[in-house]
């Protein structure tokens, strides 16, 4: 079976080339170098070693993925033709070498054996120069495929393959999605190579202004300090703050909360998010979304303390749901437009809830987890679909008047429980009128409230101009003020302010 021996040339100095690598280089097999741009290559030439460098592959590929795939293809073909070869890479063959990973993945199907040989990683020299112990938490990433979601501000971070200023510029922009522009970083070139090592600390925004970056350059990003912007923007740091609030010595109010006690705040914060959307205020929306997220984190923390679920379970449940309900994105399905995408989503959702509505009732599909007005409207709609409905909208108005009369009776009796029941009946009748007339009950009520607020503010202005206070005025004066305010404010209606105190 053809065999490819993959060896490392070390971080850059001739003294760093392992003896085992030197022995394989002189074993008489064809030698291929991933790149001739390595400090030990001139010495290899001086010693008369024959090799083929694959730098031309970098010019033929549009992406690094294509380059490394082409390199693997070349090596596999040459190994089968020659019966075996030596493939030498910078550093260690098992560290930051995508071409080697490609070889290992493809070789079994090609009938070729790949053997990883010796090498010394650039990590040794970099960590030694920086004085960093990796046990404190080390993240190593590839500059050519860097994404902001890979970054962990609490870890030491090394970004390899910053081989030119264009790559440094891309790295800078990606890092700035997480770190502040002036976050201190360190550029290192040829770490551990005598006479060639260079190390310079600078603010992040300057890394693409350095003219000495090349193929042996690495960027070091130190962990963010407590209070740094990078930490405050980290989701898990935020989750840690919420956990601290619930721990002994934390906030007395937060420690006392339960799922049930927080229920009202989830609803309240969701409405404040909706209001920020209505106001078209991006800053307010970001702030209110944070308040809503706090509720999610609090509930997740309480769930973790009770052993019921943790924040990762919340993430996993949502991820699974998104994948299930979007087969046209994450599966084999296709959706040509918004309507078809919604149909596929509803089909997937119905499949999830199959078997839940087996009681046969027309109200089995009633969804209780929504604002009460919407629940009432849906209940009326489902009953109407089953044939139970008023014949005319005017009949519903009659029902509203009937419920209002019963409510008036309970006001006289003073039974609070009965009063609440009759008030609910009145609201339910109003919800059915909204359904029958295709009105948005929530929006209608909000518009009425805004109209009232505008007129009330006008009353306050008129009273202030007259030098009086609303609280000091009798009912007839208040009624007159209300009519004056209504005359000067938009909207229709003939109700008087009346004795509303």
Structural write-up:
It is built from 20 helices and ten strands. Helix 2 links the parallel strand 2 (31-33) and strand 3 (52-53). It has six domains: 3-120, Cobalt-precorrin-4 Transmethylase, domain 1, CATH 3.40.1010.10; 123-229, Methyltransferase, Cobalt-precorrin-4 Transmethylase, Domain 2 (2-Layer Sandwich), CATH 3.30.950; 234-308, MazG-like (Helix Hairpins), CATH 1.10.287.1080; 310-350, no CATH class; 372-439, MazG-like (Helix Hairpins); 442-488, no CATH class. Strands 3-2-4-1-5 form a five-stranded parallel sheet, with helices on both faces. A five-stranded mixed sheet has the order 6-7-10-8-9, with no helix packed on it. It is of the alpha/beta class. It has helices spanning 19-25, 41-46, 56-60, 64-82, 98-110, 122-130, 165-175, 229-232, 235-246, 252-256, 259-278, 282-306, 311-325, 327-330, 338-352, 372-385, 393-413, 416-436, 441-465, 475-488, and strands spanning 3-8, 31-33, 52-53, 84-89, 113-116, 138-142, 156-160, 184-189, 198-203, 217-221.
């Amino acid at each position: 079976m053809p065999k490819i021996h993959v060896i490392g040339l070390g971080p850059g100095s001739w003294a760093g080339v392992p003896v085992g690598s030197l022995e394989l280089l002189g074993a008489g097999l064809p030698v291929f170098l991933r790149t001739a741009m390595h400090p030990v290559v001139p010495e290899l030439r001086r010693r008369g070693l024959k090799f083929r460098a694959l730098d031309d592959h970098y010019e033929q590929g549009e992406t690094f993925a294509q380059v490394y795939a082409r390199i693997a293809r070349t090596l596999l073909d040459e190994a089968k033709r020659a019966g075996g070869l030596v493939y030498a890479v910078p550093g260690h063959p098992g560290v930051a070498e995508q071409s080697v990973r490609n070889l290992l993945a493809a070789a079994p199907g090609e009938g070729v054996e790949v053997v990883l040989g010796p090498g010394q990683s650039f990590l040794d020299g970099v960590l030694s120069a920086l004085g960093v112990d990796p046990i404190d938490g080390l993240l190593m990433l590839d500059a050519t495929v860097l994404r902001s979601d890979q970054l962990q501000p609490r870890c030491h971070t090394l970004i390899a393959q910053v081989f030119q200023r264009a790559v440094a510029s891309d790295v800078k922009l990606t890092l700035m999605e997480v770190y502040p522009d002036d976050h201190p970083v360190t550029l290192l070139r040829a770490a551990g190579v005598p006479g060639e090592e260079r190390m310079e600390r600078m603010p992040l925004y300057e890394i693409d202004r350095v003219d000495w970056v090349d193929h042996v350059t690495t960027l070091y990003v130190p962990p963010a300090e407590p209070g740094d912007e990078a930490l405050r923007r980290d989701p898990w740091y935020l989750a840690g703050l919420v956990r601290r609030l619930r721990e002994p010595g934390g906030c007395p109010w937060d420690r006392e909360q339960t799922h049930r006690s927080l229920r009202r705040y989830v609803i309240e914060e969701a409405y404040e998010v909706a209001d920020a959307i209505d106001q078209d205020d991006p800053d307010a929306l970001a702030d209110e979304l944070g308040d809503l997220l706090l509720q999610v984190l609090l509930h997740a923390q309480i769930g973790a303390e009770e052993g019921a679920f943790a924040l990762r379970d919340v993430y996993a449940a949502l991820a699974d749901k998104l994948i299930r309900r979007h087969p046209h994105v994450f599966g084999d399905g296709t959706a040509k437009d918004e309507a078809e995408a919604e149909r596929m989503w509803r089909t997937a959702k119905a499949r999830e809830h199959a078997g839940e509505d087996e009681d046969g009732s027309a109200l089995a599909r009633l969804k209780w987890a929504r604002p009460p007005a919407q629940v009432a409207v849906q209940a009326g709609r489902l009953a109407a679909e089953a044939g139970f409905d008023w014949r005319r909208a005017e009949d519903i108005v009659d029902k509203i008047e009937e419920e209002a009369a019963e409510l008036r009776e309970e006001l006289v009796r003073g039974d609070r429980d009965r009063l609440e029941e009759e008030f609910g009946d009145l609201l339910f009748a109003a919800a059915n009128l909204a359904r029958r007339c295709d009105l948005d009950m929530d929006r209608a009520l909000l518009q009425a409230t805004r109209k009232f607020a505008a007129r009330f503010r006008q009353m306050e202005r008129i009273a202030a101009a007259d030098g009086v206070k609303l609280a000091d005025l009798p009912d007839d004066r208040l009624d007159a003020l209300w009519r004056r305010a209504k005359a000067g404010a938009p909207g229709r209606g003939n109700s008087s302010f009346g004795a509303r105190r």
